[in-house]
Write a structure and sequence with these properties.
aralkylamine N-acetyltransferase, alpha+beta, about 220 residues, GNAT_dom
Length: about 220
């Protein structure tokens, strides 16, 4: 059995990544699996594609399966200005219930753990979506993708790396790669106006956690 290869994703890979996003990421993502709608929305797929076009995202390919894409890590450079820009762009778009709920929990976590305020950095390498084919899990592919991204950060002008982990498994990867948890929100505490829990993922997934690594 050959070892998977890790490399930067190129445009020819984008449809394969989008297929992975639909088949082995989104149905198991805790913010999706605990909701009625378990498929990616057009705006979520649009966001994935816009991130890929930045040219920083990584893939894992399996030489034993014809270099099939078996894992991906989509990456953005995050700045305070970019967050404001996204808010402006999204205000006139049709509202999607799950997307609104996801934005809400992200904003609550940002209030608790704003990496820009805490570390006085002006941009961070944001690890957005991490997915691994079910058939390839348990082979450290997710860890290798994150390790590779950490090694890229300084060359891209980022002293910080950030990942928001909704899954217990991605949180373990963040810890394994030397990242530090700076804030968390328990899913049981994120409720709607009627006091009902909004996200109800499998019991192993209990929190959304923000991890960072700062290069001195």
């Amino acid at each position: 059995m050959s070892e998977v290869n890790i490399r930067i994703a190129v445009p020819d890979d984008f449809e394969d990544i989008l297929d992975g996003f639909r088949t082995y990421f989104w149905p198991y993502e805790p913010l999706s699996s605990g909701q009625k709608i378990k498929t990616a929305t057009p705006s979520e797929e649009e966001f994935v594609m816009s991130t890929l076009q930045k040219g920083m995202s990584l893939i894992a390919t399996d030489p034993d399966r014809g270099d099939k894409v078996v894992g991906f890590l989509t990456i953005e450079i995050l700045t305070p200005g970019l967050l404001a820009e996204w808010d402006e762009l999204s205000k006139d778009k049709p509202k999607e219930e799950r997307t609104e709920a996801m934005g809400g929990i992200f904003n609550k976590l940002n209030e608790k753990a704003d990496v820009f305020e805490m570390y006085k950095v002006d941009k961070v390498l944001w690890l957005v979506y991490l997915g691994v084919d079910q058939a390839m899990r348990g082979k450290n592919i997710g860890t290798r993708l994150v390790e590779r991204s950490i090694s890229m950060a300084e060359s891209l002008g980022c002293k910080g790396i950030e990942i928001d982990c909704t899954s217990a498994f991605s949180a373990r990867i963040a810890q394994r790669t030397g990242m530090k948890c700076i804030g968390e929100i328990a899913f049981k505490d994120y409720v709607d106006a009627n006091g009902e829990q909004i996200f109800n993922p499998p019991a192993i997934h209990t929190h959304m956690r923000r991890f960072v690594k700062i290069h001195e």
